[in-house]
Every structure is written in C-alpha cells, then in structure tokens.
C-alpha cells in the first residue's frame, strides 16, 4: 500500500488513521526554534464528517486510503436500506440507514449523489451541494423586533425543517445548501 511522508501531507489527500479513512482538511508544517519539526493536520472522518486535529513528527508516515467516489442515483428506500444505482456501470448499491445518517433529509428519488467506497464498502453518501425541495408545511409567522431578519420554519418534501424568509409559501420550491442546511433562494 502506498504511504505518504510528512512532506506530502497535502489538503485533499485520503489517508488511513486509527484504521479509519480520513481526508486532510488542512496541513500546517511547523518548525519551532527549538526541537523537532512537526506537521499539524485537521482530518475529517469520511463516515461521520467529524473533524479532528492531530500532530505528526516530520518522520511519520500515513497510509493512503483506498477510497473511491462514484456518482449514483438514489432509487428508493424500504426504511432500513437505501438503494442506489451507479451511473456508468448500472450496478445497484444497497446502503444501510445508519450510513445515510442526516443526509436522508436532502435525498429525493432519482436525485444524483456521490457514493464514497472504502475497500469496496460504502462509508458515506453525499447529496449534491444544492437541492431543490418543495415546501409542504409552514409555521405561523411571529413578528420579530427586527423586520429585516424575519424568518419562519417550514417542512420540506423530505421531512427536513428549515428556516426561510416569511414570504415563502406552501407549494413553492426552494434551493437548500446541504452542507449547512440553510435556505439559499426560491426556484421554479
């Protein structure tokens, strides 16, 4: 298996740490006035998106993770398993509910998404960065002291609850940023 030396700990590299696949979010080489140089990394775990910070000596090496990303379409779910089909090979993938996690609120049938595999096992499902969802329910608006920042809660077609401006009505489609879960704009 390929390994990375500390001088090759670059942002975006996929590595194995504590027998789990991670991606390097940031890398900082530090050469103190006294003592050995080291590298400070921020690592994001693929399966949970948890961010950790670790320090490595300049002599340390990390194993490259055999992580692949595939584009797939979400087909349906039966409550416990979610079914996807790869775009190019038409291979069907079965994904457990726990792997989908909170991303289920951004997936509609026939939506395209990214499937992350590690050693041929699905470890993460990532929806598109922006999704278009229908508002199916809304709460009553309670006027705030600040009129320019008035929002209300709405329920979307996937069951997600999002804060939106007060002018959004039931039946409208809105654009949501799946990374933050925030309203972006109205769409048609």
TrEMBL record:
Organism from which the protein derives: Buchnera aphidicola
Gene3D superfamilies with a match to the protein in the record: 2.30.30.30, Nucleic acid-binding proteins
Assigned GO CC terms: cytosol
GO MF annotation list: translation elongation factor activity
Residue ranges occupied by any Translation elongation factor P/YeiP central domain in the UniProt entry: 69-123
Its biological purpose: Involved in peptide bond synthesis. Alleviates ribosome stalling that occurs when 3 or more consecutive Pro residues or the sequence PPG is present in a protein, possibly by augmenting the peptidyl transferase activity of the ribosome. Modification of Lys-34 is required for alleviation.
Post-translational modifications: May be beta-lysylated on the epsilon-amino group of Lys-34 by the combined action of EpmA and EpmB, and then hydroxylated on the C5 position of the same residue by EpmC (if this protein is present). Lysylation is critical for the stimulatory effect of EF-P on peptide-bond formation. The lysylation moiety may extend toward the peptidyltransferase center and stabilize the terminal 3-CCA end of the tRNA. Hydroxylation of the C5 position on Lys-34 may allow additional potential stabilizing hydrogen-bond interactions with the P-tRNA.
Pfam families noted in UniProt: EFP (PF01132), EFP_N (PF08207), Elong-fact-P_C (PF09285)
Pathway: Protein biosynthesis; polypeptide chain elongation
Major site of localization recorded for this protein: cytoplasm
Lineage: Bacteria, Pseudomonadati, Pseudomonadota, Gammaproteobacteria, Enterobacterales
Cell cycle as UniProt keyword: no
Keyword Protein biosynthesis assigned: yes
Entry keywords, A to Z: Cytoplasm, Elongation factor, Hydroxylation, Protein biosynthesis
Family, per entry: Belongs to the elongation factor P family.
Modified residues (N6-(3,6-diaminohexanoyl)-5-hydroxylysine): 34
All copies of domain Elongation factor P C-terminal, residue ranges: 131-186
Alphabetical GO biological process terms: peptide biosynthetic process
Record localization: Cytoplasm
Protein name in UniProt: Elongation factor P
């Amino acid at each position: 298996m390929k390994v990375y030396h500390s001088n090759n700990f670059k942002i975006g590299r996929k590595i194995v740490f504590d027998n789990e696949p991670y991606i390097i979010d940031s890398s900082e080489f530090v050469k103190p006035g006294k003592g050995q140089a080291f590298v400070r990394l921020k690592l994001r775990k693929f399966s949970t998106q948890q961010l950790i910070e670790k320090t490595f000596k300049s002599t340390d090496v990390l194993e490259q993770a055999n992580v692949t990303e595939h584009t797939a379409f979400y087909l349906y779910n039966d409550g416990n398993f979610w079914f996807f089909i790869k775009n190019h090979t038409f291979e069907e993938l079965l994904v457990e509910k726990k792997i989908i996690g909170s991303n289920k609120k951004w997936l509609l049938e026939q939506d395209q998404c990214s499937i992350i595999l590690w050693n041929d096992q699905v470890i993460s499902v990532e929806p598109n960065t922006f999704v278009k969802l229908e508002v199916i329910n809304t709460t009553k608006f309670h006027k705030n002291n600040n009129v320019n920042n008035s929002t209300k809660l709405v329920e979307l077609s996937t069951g997600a609850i999002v804060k939106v401006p007060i002018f959004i009505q039931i039946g409208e489609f809105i654009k949501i940023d799946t990374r933050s879960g925030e309203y972006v704009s109205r769409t048609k």
